[in-house]
Design brief:
CATH superfamily of the largest domain: HUPs
Distance between the termini: 42 Å
CATH class of the largest domain: Alpha Beta
Bound molecules: adenosine monophosphate
Number of helices: 12
Strand content: 5-15%
CATH architecture of the largest domain: 3-Layer(aba) Sandwich
Helix content: 55-70%
Amino acid sequence: MPHLGNYTGAIRRWVELQNDFEAYVCVVDLHALTLPWKPSELRRQSLEACASFIACGLDPAKGVIFLQSQVPAHLELAWVLTCLARMGELRRMIQFKERSRGETESVGVGLFTYPVLQAADVLLYRAHGVPVGEDQRQHIELMRDLGGRFNAMFGETFVLPEPWIAPTGARIMALDDPTQKMSKSAGRPQSSILLVDEPSVITKKVRAAVTDSGRDVIAAPDKPAVTNLLTIFSVMEGSSLEDLQDRGWDGYGSFKSALADAIIEHLAPIRQRWMELMDDTAELERLLATGAEKAARTADATIADVRSRIGLLGAG
Ligand code: AMP
């Protein structure tokens, strides 16, 4: 289930951009296999993620929403790019270093190579931009390197995508530790707010969020915790940091209770819609199947081009 960081850094931007661009949004169920998983949970999580994207405002009639595993071209291109990728460049990926926590011998190979699959996810659609949070900047750089390498070796095939990083909210930090990003793999429920958390849970999490020394509500480099809370507030309410700072807060207590209210208000319609969508998972599966058909039309054309360029027989 996406959290507030995913929402501010990525999902809300997909929603904004869907009116002006041909948008492809994929639920990355194959990426979920990079960490231990339970089949029944994976099924549920895939549907929940799809429902949450639609609940946030993505419109399956405007963009293409699909499940990564239902478009096999992703895996085919991932293999070709794996053969172009270098161990050294994958080893430099910060996410791999963070997630493997130095256990480079026992960690799954999927965790090491998943940025290559991610490159395939984007390059297949010849996307010009990828709206992502700050943590994905390096992976987009890798996509560009792999796409550029392929183009140099086999002729112009891929568009090299730009990272489209939000000016505000591109790196939301954990509520219980402002030195770490808010992340689903943190394993600490109090560190993040999920898009479908109940109002009472949101209030509790915000109340428990760490703050900085002093009692001034200002965004400043020596106030990372309060700066993070202000950033969340500004995205939830659509107000500027300056405006929020100038509201004459009486210490952190009143600020946190207003912040909790703003989050609850912003997420209420999303939660409501999400629950309605999850009541009819057959309809979600139908939407995903239609999305996969549309995505495959583009992806299959790209992969046919790739096959013929790299010299696979029977590929035109
Ligand atoms: P992930 O949670 O790694 O599947 O990321 C999904 C999208 O959310 C990516 O575009 C990330 O860059 C973005 N994202 C993840 N965590 C955060 C965060 N703490 N703040 C802002 N964006 C984030």
